[in-house]
User: Which sequence fits this backbone?
């Protein structure tokens, strides 16, 4: 591992390194160069220093005894006392990986009055559920959660640690990985065990979803990954599965906690597309942001949510939370209606698991038709209004 150091005795505070740094990571403090965390170790400042006061050194890392690490640990994320849906998908994949490795599957849950919820996880094939139950843990905060989970990981030494790629998981996972000095693969869409090395093969989209990268962590433990929601198969209940619930104690006064939550306000955010059973999505064929008003009307009639292709989001026609695809969200609704979406590989990967797909596009050769259950070739501005009219007509007849 590389690090950059400043020899304070030799530094003259001339400021040449400040001018040379392309990342603005250096400042002069009390006549000595000070390097911030924005440093990328490019080495430009080393060459720029006229007195040789800055150097990049290789720090020796302590060897990790990989044989001490066994088992798979899942972060049992909860919100308002309920286990998040992504946890059941992680358990399903975790059980599969654990069986292949011949190791245990465990889960850690932090919250308040969550024992009953935690116990229920055992019936999905979890061997051990670790619980931290305290009023201080009712609402997620990075500091206390990271401290307690890091302590547990150091104690039980799991081989693999999986966390949902939710807003909570994306905030928590990097902090834990940093404390444990291990690698982290973010936003995984695939997890497999390599039959020869027995390492975890962690697959995720890269370069805006244009390629799929497979990443390994051969020298550090645990092998950590955050996993996208709706890409893994949900675990099924295993009647009479026998597991163990372990309640863990801690001293609240010793927990770091830089944040005080005064009030939690839940806004009207609409339907989350990852949870929606019906999604009406728009792409390039809409021609502009006005088209999403039409799709919104159809989605509202159907009780669904509005989705979008990456191009529509990049053009500013609709906000990022609506984006479906490898660089957006992966969805599995009962009905997916694609309007003016040609069907790039990245978009198809994010919605092809839908139960039923309807595609509307002028181009009969559009790739979206290859995955569609029903394809409508034509102008969406003629077809969608007609769909809306027919749905309203049928509902009026039902109401008579």
Assistant:
């Amino acid at each position: 591992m590389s690090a950059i150091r400043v020899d304070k005795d030799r530094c003259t505070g001339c400021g040449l390194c400040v001018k040379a740094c392309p990342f603005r990571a250096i400042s002069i403090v009390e006549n000595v160069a000070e390097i911030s965390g924005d440093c990328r170790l490019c080495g430009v400042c080393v060459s720029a220093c006229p007195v040789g006061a800055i150097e990049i050194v290789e720090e020796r890392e302590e060897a990790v005894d990989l044989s001490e690490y066994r088992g798979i640990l899942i972060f049992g994320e909860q919100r308002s006392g309920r286990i998040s849906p992504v946890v059941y998908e992680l358990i399903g994949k975790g059980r599969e990986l654990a069986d292949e490795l011949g190791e245990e599957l465990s889960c850690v849950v932090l919250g308040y009055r969550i024992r009953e919820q935690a116990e229920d996880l055992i019936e999905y094939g979890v061997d051990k559920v670790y619980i931290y139950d305290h009023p201080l843990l009712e609402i997620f905060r990075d500091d206390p959660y990271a401290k307690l989970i890091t302590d547990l990981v150091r104690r039980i030494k799991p081989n693999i640690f999986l966390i949902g790629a939710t807003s909570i998981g994306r905030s928590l996972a990097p902090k834990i990985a940093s404390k444990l000095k291990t690698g982290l693969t973010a936003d995984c869409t695939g997890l497999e065990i390599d039959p020869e090395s027995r390492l975890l093969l962690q697959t995720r989209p890269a370069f805006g979803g244009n390629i799929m990268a497979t990443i390994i962590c051969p020298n550090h433990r645990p092998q950590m990954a955050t996993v996208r929601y709706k890409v893994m198969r949900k675990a099924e209940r295993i009647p009479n599965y026998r597991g163990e619930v372990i309640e863990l104690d801690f001293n609240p006064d010793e927990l770091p906690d830089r944040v005080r939550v005064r009030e939690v306000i839940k806004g009207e955010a609409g339907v989350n597309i990852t949870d929606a059973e019906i999604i009406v999505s728009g792409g390039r064929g809409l021609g502009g942001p006005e088209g999403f008003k039409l799709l919104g009307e159809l989605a509202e009639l159907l009780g669904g949510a509005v989705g979008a292709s990456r191009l529509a989001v990049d053009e500013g026609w609709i906000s990022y939370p609506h984006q479906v695809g490898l660089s957006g969200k992966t969805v599995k609704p009962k009905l997916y209606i694609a309007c003016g979406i040609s069907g790039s590989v990245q978009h198809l990967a994010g919605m092809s698991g839908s139960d039923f797909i309807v595609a509307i596009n002028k181009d009969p050769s559009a790739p979206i038709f290859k995955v569609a259950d029903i394809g409508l070739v034509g102008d969406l501005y003629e077809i969608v209004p007609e769909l809306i009219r027919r749905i309203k007509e049928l509902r009026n007849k039902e109401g008579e």
Observations:
- The two ends are 74 Å apart (CA to CA).
- The first helix runs from residue 16 to 20.
